[in-house]
Amino acid sequence: MSTSTPPPPHELDRAVASTLGADGARHLELTADWNTPNGTANGGYVLAVVLRAVLDEAATSAPDHPDPLSVSVNYLKPPTPGPAAVAVTTVRVGRRVSVHQAVLSQAGGAVAHAVVTLHDWDTTGDAEHTPHAAPAVPGPEEGHDLAESIPAGAVPIVDRYEVRSPHVPGWLRGEPSGVPEATVWVRPEDGRRIDAVAAAAIVDGYPPVTADLGLLASATVQLTVHLRRRPDTDWALMHVTTRHVIDGYHDEDVELWDREGRLIAQSRQLAILS
């Protein structure tokens, strides 16, 4: 009697799971469930796809490095729902870190290129310098549920996360504040705990804060995430800001903190406004 492996219990894990094919690549079905208002796949979702593939491959090629340290993705063109493949190459395995590259392809053409650095949090040093603490805001239980301001099903990526804010942002009230910054609590909508893969996806899970400049349509060109510890938290506190909008491009910086006020991830992306 044959047996099959049951699907992962959480939505994110099902959406990024891949299987190793005879061609050496990892194959999966991309879903539209993580699409943005542009009708294209969210950059954090694409990043999580390639990160999961690298972690699965590195379990063999770099077994002493189980933890992501950094992920940098260049988005070449928008992927579409349907079959896709991730080709993973281990570039170097060192004593402290290993470096891997991954190319996400569809129909024979590359749609994203990533460089991933792995290591082991149990073997790091103990030097510390933390110049500021997590933002001082009420807990998620006391925040406004932003889903109440956006109709369910209107934007797929919005339905993937639960977001709580100390106040309803101006752009959602039709009154952009002119300040491209936000501090919100966020978690996967199905209650999945936040580990490294979820944290790496979440940094791109909030609408672009350029919305408070009246500029909502944004597409990621390049995204880099630095993981700062091995996360395990129910909610993450996100502080996101845009510092410069120049010639139609904007940056976006994110700090992600766990429930205990510890920094778990930082990211920076460059995006184009359309």
Automatic annotation (TrEMBL):
Q: What positions does the domain Acyl-CoA thioesterase-like C-terminal occupy?
A: 142-272
Gene3D superfamilies cross-referenced by the UniProt entry: Acyl-CoA thioesterase, double hotdog domain (2.40.160.210)
Q: What is this protein called?
A: Thioesterase family protein
Give one Pfam hit by family name. 4HBT_3
Q: Where is the Acyl-CoA thioesterase-like N-terminal HotDog domain?
A: 32-118
Taxonomy, superkingdom: Bacteria
Q: What InterPro entries has UniProt attached to this entry? A: ACOT8-like_C, Acyl-CoA_hotdog, HotDog_dom_sf, Sec_Metab_Biosynth-Assoc, TesB_ACOT8-like_N
